[in-house]
Fold each of these.
Amino acid sequence: MKRLPRAIPARAWVLLVALLLLAGLAALYQASRKPGAAIVLLVPDEAALARPVTRAWLDAAKEEGLSVVTMTDDAFLRYGGDGRGISGVILPDTVHPQASELLVNQLHRYVQAGGHLFITFDAALLNTQDGRYAADQSRLSRLAGVPYAMRGAQNDRPTDDPERPGQRHFRTGSAQGAIVLLFSERGDTIVSQHGYGQGTVLFANLPLGYLKTRADPYPLHRLLSHFASHLPRAPDALRDRPATASARALSLVHDGGAAR
Amino acid sequence: MNAARQLIPGRAQHEAIEAARARLDEARSGAGAPLEAGTRLRLTPLTVVELLLMAALPCAALLAAKPWLMGFWHSMILWWSERLALPLGLVRTGDSESLEWLTSYAGALVPSPATGVVAAALVIGGFASTWWMSDRQVPLKYLVRLLCVVQASALLFFMFVPTSFPYSMTGHLASLLNAGYYLMLAIPPLLALGWGVLRIPLHQKLLYPVLMLAYFAFMLPHKALLHAVVVQHFSALYMPLLYLCFGAVLDLMVFVALYSWLASRAPPLALGAGVAR
């Protein structure tokens, strides 16, 4: 038995190990291209799954009959931004304020290639190094088609709507290519939709998950339903529903004139 | 012929060994013919002042010209980036300017599975190929292995915790240019000690350091540009390799190579304190 390894020269062993490693890599690559049909709720890590706001998003999706699965940033980056594999990506408020430059870049590539993204409130606003504002305005402003969370004493903190205390939003600039679905009393964009590359982006300037945990679930449910209904490959659970999502989104105007 | 007989030196070999030993002793004692009395390394006050000026004046000029130099580098990189479609822009913060890599640009900053597989295949192939290198290629062998290990660690990082990658291209480019600038600051003192002490004409003492600094002033932004092109086309997967092996270390190796080439061109009698004019 000892003679066999000696009979094989060292270079042949090296070649064998190299070929085995390459075969393993090819298998991993093949396994990474599994298509899926679910909407992905992007969370920074596993610990975020236990947070109330994450639960609020998942509960809302369940109540709306949507197939939403959670995915960590690492898993999303490993996926390589293959838009064919994910129906849509939701970047939730409150639990995902920090994002690396790689993640922001990946989100852009995902939408550019035809993906559908739902951005909410303070998602990806801060950098991962020190938790500070990563840029002069949200790095997702170009995706949203609306500059928001601009750096400055007056602009980078969420402001309360005077007519609806507790409903906070960021001051925004004028829309740059986005269709604004809802304005605030001050003229800030609250909900907008934007085409970017081959994909679309729904932007909600409200802490939807946080509001649901504070017994105000209506905005989250309506916008989640609106987002899912605009996906080209909506989960089966939604296909039976009437396609009146736009009307439902606009029916957010239920606050007696606080928003117009 | 008997093998044992070959090991016994003959009379001629014995004399040759003795002569070589004598020359070695002579060299060790510093009494060789090339270094005659009066040409030994000797620092006079005038030479010391000259060396200090050679070190201090270029450093002062570089410090004074830092904003202009950085602006020149930024302009050069931006000029190329327009033509190479790189997502680079200039950001002004107060009085300072810096290059910014536009994150929102849909470039391939994140490695795709295909990029990862190709990089892994290159690493495995490169590492395995070192077993086919001959003994004469030992330096190359270990260099290739080092590069493969660095790239393999980057691959593992991007495979398991890619979102924890803390570096940005904006920071990468800024640190490259800053490191290059500080190397340029170190060059005048190093050349004053290693080149200014040689017995060579004054114009050569001044000309070659200036040429070397000019070379770095021209090469550094182009090297940063090359890094940007690699990252743009092959993702941030190669940023660690570029930073660790082809960043400041490469600049230092280029400096050592240039100095060695320069010193090898000095005349044999250049080692001395006297200043030839």
Note: The two ends of chain A are 83 Å apart (CA to CA).
Amino acid sequence: MLHTDPQSFLPAVLSGASSAATLCLSLLATYAFWLGVMRLWEDSGITRMISKLLKPIVGRLFKLQNEESKRAVAMNVAANLLGLGGAATPFGIKAAKLLEEEENERYSSSMLFALNATSLQLIPTSIVAMRAALGCPSPASVILPILLSSACSAVCSILLVRLFIRPTTVPKKASEKRGIGVRQTVGDKFFRRQPNARKAGKTGRREAGRI
Amino acid sequence: MSDALLKFFASLIPVIFLLSILFALVRKVRVYDSFTEGAKGAIPLITSLFPYVATVMMLTKALQTSGLEDKLIEWITPLFRFLHVPSEIAELVFVKPLSGSGATAMLADIIEKYGVDSYIGRCACVVAGSSETVFYIGAVYFAERKKPRLRAALVIALLSYLLSVVISCLLCSIL
């Protein structure tokens, strides 16, 4: 660009900024609605019910201790599955903030990000609606491939996060007693990281390294 | 059948809204107070989001106008050919993680050019439907955090995105 058309740089960047401003305005409207609904759900106990339903999965997948962050993550997952993107985002932001205080902060927030980035939803409403609007005779025909491919990418990200970003599963004290506290992941081997190498003791490390 | 389906989805949000108000009334929650209290949170949320969203979009725009994007697409095309991703949707694949509205516009273009039910049109739909605007989500979700530490997760998300693109095109040629 520098030698072809340097004058177009600033206008282009500014147009990016101004579309960000308009986007944020429309997001302000969306969030005002969804945050209101979200508060309503929290006050009337719907959030608690849904998170109770999803707790087994969320607890396992994200390795969370704190009740409140479990609830936020569960609501984020539920809203994503239902395709309520507007509702998923505020819950996700809240969850991301709460996860910062968790023990497995890096693992759980990576999982949150990876899952949200795969757009796993039961019905891809916006695409189906768009196809219908463009006069397609069978707008719903893409639902199955979309579902399959987003499921594949979701599984892939879950596996990769599990593989490369180590969750410290068991509460530390109990695991140290049993001598299995250090779990070396493929990622650790790959990057030649030694997790808690000094603490673990030599035998434990050697065994772990051989897996 | 699909009309009924679409109607069902269109009515999903209002129905959920009504049901949640009814449920709140049954639970004796003060609906108006609670709703406004929640909506109040939108303004600080947006103020904290804006700088990050603006930066991502400015960078995207700069990437597009500088022609760097076309170069990158050129470089990446052999890889796509190897993975059996049609080159017509390469640009869409490239833009989708960066900008949702850009991807939507591009998808409409592709559909108009090649037809909704052509192989390429279907590929484009499935690719767009099975992915998210990765960078935007990263910017928004982790705007309020002190140290995001997301580099590894970003790589993972992009890898899974690539996988979903390949699988999408594969599925479109089978189904």
Note: Residues 111 and 133 of chain A are 35 Å apart (CA to CA).
